[in-house]
Design goal:
By secondary structure, the chain is mostly helical. The protein is built from 15 helices and three strands. A hairpin with a 4-residue loop joins strand 1 and strand 2.
Length: about 350
């Protein structure tokens, strides 16, 4: 038995391979660095969906653009949103309204499109503004920022978000992907499986860490205060947000990709330079105070910096993560449906056993 299923192989997949010892992420035969440098988000969708019958071929950008327009039309039927829900709960509400009657071959496209369209709409509504209709001619990341801001988006901002979506598109059998595959194995349908993935991602131990990275930077305040603040935090047993990972025993390769993205945004008015100083101080404190443990920078640290520099609110960070990770969810769902079986692990009972001859009261 492995508590937390560490090192348990629960599926075979062609989607991605996470090598925690070497710090490698391979997606469909490509190293992450190559993928992030050479592929758009739409091209990654094509890569992940490759080989599944009936899905779009070469012109995924156009197909995804049309699916965004379809998602926006469906959005109108679900408004107004329940005001007592948080932002991510409102996204969950909208995704749960996607109808299973949609043609099965179009469901992966609609799920990806709707996650972006609904996220932008939720954020605008929560800011007191009306949702903005998509532009099907644009790339997914570019159109997302346009729908959110309702203004012309600088090309380097669109590129930064596109690279982020590529970087987080798939990452092995993580908690949300496993949840999506488990639901898919019951043949509950693709949309139900995606909603299950989102529900798992919502948890602070999975997709909710980038926001607290910014809370930490707020508390530190200045470069001069960094080492003392971080030292006190570690001595008091607090976790430094954005450092350490369940799988990686060396630096998270996604952190390096996103650090380069952050540098591309550094000339804008933001605190990326300050965050780089905090990162250096944190790694030094962890090396001094946590000897024998490898606690390197993980994906959440530079996710927080990139998304903040793109002027995205903190409450949106997990939703933006989902906007990229839905690519992997849909691919794993298709793979599970293509050749998998009902996922039904066993448990080890450790409760009391009935006493022979004693009737229950």
């Amino acid at each position: 038995m492995s508590i937390g299923l560490d090192d348990v192989i629960a599926a075979t997949t062609v989607m991605s391979h996470v090598d925690g010892e070497a710090g490698r992420l391979i997606v469909r035969g490509y190293e992450l660095d190559d993928l992030a440098a050479k592929f758009s988000f739409e091209e990654v969708l094509g890569l992940l969906w490759s080989g599944f019958h009936g899905l779009p071929g070469d012109d995924i950008q156009a197909e995804l653009g049309r699916a965004r327009f379809e998602a926006f039309q469906l959005l109108q039927d679900s408004l107004p949103l329940p005001g007592q829900l948080s932002a991510i709960e409102q996204l969950r509400y909208l995704l749960s309204a996607l109808p299973d009657s949609v043609d099965v071959a179009r469901q992966p496209l609609l799920a990806v499109a709707a996650t972006g369209v609904f996220t932008a709409a939720v954020l605008r509504i929560r800011g007191g503004a009306a949702p903005v209709a998509p532009d099907p001619s644009m790339g997914h990341a570019h159109d997302f920022l346009r729908m959110l801001r309702n203004e012309v988006v600088p090309a380097h901002h669109a590129k930064a978000l596109d690279t982020y979506l590529v970087t987080v598109a798939d990452h092995g059998l993580n908690a949300s992907t496993f949840a999506a595959r488990t639901i898919a194995s019951t043949q509950a349908g693709l949309f139900s499986s995606v909603v299950g993935g989102l529900c798992a991602l919502k948890g602070p131990l999975h997709g909710g860490a980038p926001g607290p990275v910014l809370d930490m930077l707020d508390a530190i305040g200045s470069e001069e205060n960094a080492r003392a603040w971080l030292t006190d935090a570690v001595q008091n047993g607090e976790r430094l947000m954005g450092f350490g990972h369940r799988v990686y025993r060396v630096r998270d390769p996604r952190a390096d990709v996103l650090k380069r993205v952050a540098k591309s945004l550094r000339e804008d008015a933001n605190r990326i330079k300050f965050a780089e100083q905090v990162e250096a101080a944190a790694l030094g404190v962890l090396a001094d105070r946590k000897k024998g443990r490898v606690l390197e920078t993980n994906v959440e640290f530079y996710t927080a910096l990139v998304l903040e520099a793109l002027k995205l609110p903190r409450e949106s960070f997990t939703m933006i993560f989902a906007t990229g990770r839905v690519a992997g969810w849909t691919a794993h769902i298709l793979e599970q449906l293509d050749g998998g079986r009902l996922i039904r692990p066993q448990s080890q009972y450790v409760g009391p056993m009935p006493t022979p001859g004693v009737a229950a009261e």
